[in-house]
Amino acid sequence: MAYDEDKEFEKLERRIEKYIREQRMLEKISDEYEVREEVFDRTTLIALYDLMNRGYIDEFYGVVSTGKEARVYSAVDSNGNPIAVKIFLTWTSEFRRGRMKYILGDPRFDGIYSSPQKLIYAWASKEYKNLKLAYDAGVYVPKPIIQHKNIIVMEFIGKNFKPAPTLKEYHNLTPHILYQILRQVRILYNDAGLVHADLSEYNIFYYKRKPILFDFGQAVVKSHPQAEVFLIRDINNILNFFRLNDIETPPLDDVLEYIKG
To answer: Annotated catalytic, 234?
Structure first.
């Protein structure tokens, strides 16, 4: 029997529609679930079709997080392994406004400012490459699996499709956890050559006694002109969070010296 790509694509659309209908049955109809046109536009569906056809994604299970720039879904691959699928919205003015300070001066974005779609694809590629650099350096991050257009597939951090708690949600903070995080920042800086540039209690999971850093789209290399500013901001965010939770922290200058090795 001849392979009919149009029919396969229609099957994929039906699977996406089925997922959305099931979510609406489980949850009240709200803006969060009015996603058919906003997230699963035709270009995204074509990219998902590619990934599903290659076995990287099999079925979606639920929304993990929503934002103005992207949504993250829990899913499984063709072998039943849990994965997280991050889909960047291909048309959003919020993205351009919020991310230009990380894009200006980066040669990967030269000549594409006038194309929102190309800008999103380049950003997804940047996040995936940053994540892979961090993972290969031994930083605790979700394992990157593949990036295709505006989609990143990575390891799911959590259990039974429920995401692990972020540092903000974790209620047993200790000085040991603070030093675990600072060690990850040190490895990220020295071995991966990166500064996260948006690190806070909201983008660190604490799972299986490890701090796991995520959201690497805005991460910059050490040679970036604003790298020092971003690094100091990252450190201050973490130190301030622990101080607010009544945990004694070392001075900023000492932490900077430690991180830079």
So the answer is: no
Catalytic residue among 106, 198, 234, 246: 198
**Catalytic residue check, 110:** no
| Domain ranges, residue 31 | 5-159
Q: b/e for 41-59, b at 16 or more Cβ within 10 A?
A: beebeebbbbbbeeebbbe
- Options 4, 110, 215, 234, the catalytic residue: 215
Tell whether 52 and 147 lie within a shared domain. yes
pTM of the model: 0.85
Per-residue pLDDT of the chain (261 residues; tens, 9 = 90+): 445 666 766 777 677 666 656 654 444 444 444 445 467 788 888 899 899 999 999 999 888 998 888 999 999 999 999 999 999 987 655 566 666 666 665 655 566 555 677 788 888 999 999 999 999 999 999 999 999 999 999 999 999 999 999 999 999 999 999 999 999 999 999 999 999 999 999 999 999 999 999 999 999 999 888 999 999 999 999 999 999 999 999 999 999 999 998
* CATH code assigned at 98: 3.30.200.20
